[in-house]
Amino acid sequence: xxxAILHHPPPQSSHLxxxxxxxxxxxxxxxxxxxxxxxxxxxxxRDQAVLWHPxxxxxxxxxxxxxxxxxxxxLHTEAHGPVLDAVSSxxxxxxxxxxxxxxxxxARQLRELEHxxxxxxxxxxxxxxxxxxxPRLPGGQARAFYSDNGSTAVEVALKMAIQFHHNxxxxxxxxxxxxxxSYHGDTFGAMAVSERNLFTRPFWPLLFDVTTIPVPRPGRxxxxxxxxxxxxxxxxxxxxxxxxxxxxxxxVLGTAGMLTYSPHALHELLTLCQRRGVISxxxxxxxxxxxTGKLFASDHLPFGGATPxxxxxxxxxxxxTMALGLTTCTAQIYDAFxxxxxxxxxxxxxxxxxxxxxxxAALASLELLLEPDCQARIAAIEAAHKATVPALAAHPAVAxxxxxxxxxxxxxxxxxxxxxxxxxxxxxxQTALDxxxxxxxxxxxxxxxxxxxxxxxxLAQIYDALLAQADAAYALAQGTAAPLTHSHISEF
Length: 492
Prior knowledge:
Elements (H helix, E strand, L loop, with lengths): L12 H9 L6 H9 L6 H8 L16 E5 L2 E4 L4 E4 L2 H4 L8 H13 L11 H10 L7 E7 L2 H18 L7 E5 L8 H5 L18 E3 L7 H11 L11 E6 L3 E2 L5 E2 L2 H13 L3 E5 L26 E4 L11 E6 H5 L20 H15 L1 H22 L4 E7 L2 E6 L12 H9 L3 E2 L6 E4 L7 H22 L15
Parallel strand pairs: 3-15, 5-6, 5-7, 7-10, 10-11
Antiparallel strand pairs: 1-2, 2-3, 4-12, 8-9, 11-12, 13-14, 14-16
């Protein structure tokens, strides 16, 4: 039952007469009112009084840009004009902002069921999403566990893998193997399996130990495989190794600078894990839902070969509309938790597990993604990226160009190693923004990852901005331009 809305009675006519009689243009009262009038504060100014932004050093960062609305690939800001969202708003947006199909589905779901606890209850959007998504994942995925975001999807996966071995009376298997430069999230388990860097340094003493192996980049495949083999070899005198799981970002390490490696190299690592009884976890939070040219990055693996046991999904899961996390697993993993002994259950959950509105958004996004028109647009972006690689690679400031699917990354040469804190970062960001394009550098690596609704003309504008960033890097290297001391950028 809706709450009653209280209506205040209108003022009596005598009050109205008194009020209006005092507002003659000739009165000093009006002059006093107008002289004290000040325009409303901007979104940016109001923000600075109350908010704390992610990955931002507020002592040096410029004010944030206020966004008043968005449509398609464009963000409409209150003071900077339209900005082309060439990074899909942190890699989440698939079909463009304010997509009418997703918006209508969300509105309909809000009128039917906004939320219900997911312990002992279920609902149509959660069931339907799992029914439609599981068969499209590689490797015989059988069960779906909902959470809130990418970090929590990873936390769920880690706990599933470790408890799987515990339930099979192998409690010594609790070590996790990770790739150098990995990023899996900002909660504690996710931080533990991510690269130890300046972002996590205050928490290092609290993070569990992991074994790190090289990324199997071209020329390093053998070293990566050898390191994994060593990690899965029992210590002297021990009957078994202590590794519970291997977690990776399949084919593309996002925050490491869009580093890519081959499906064959990943296949070798997964095959070894399978032979040694190690759970393999594919963190497809970033790479899922078409980013690599296929529905999932793991779809690039050789047919019939080893596939991940667990998948972590988020970001594009709802088309970028709202937060939702999903962890899927094989029947073998799920069955290890079934028992008359209730202590073998998976004791994990969130207040907003399987939120019906988020699941409805994800269903609508998945339907749009699977349409032939969307698949054709993904292929067109991939082809356009490929066509522009030679021009980028020929630029004297460019050290490397990496391309896979809709991901296009350019590593720019500069003083010092590739790093989030590279001196080029702020200049590169502002250079693109001055051209009306949002391109958030990963230090000295700039990348384009547009929503699938992007047009050929908008892609051309993105490529022009990338080349302008390369020009800016070259000018700085030649000493003909000064680096910016600050900008709107934060660390990611």
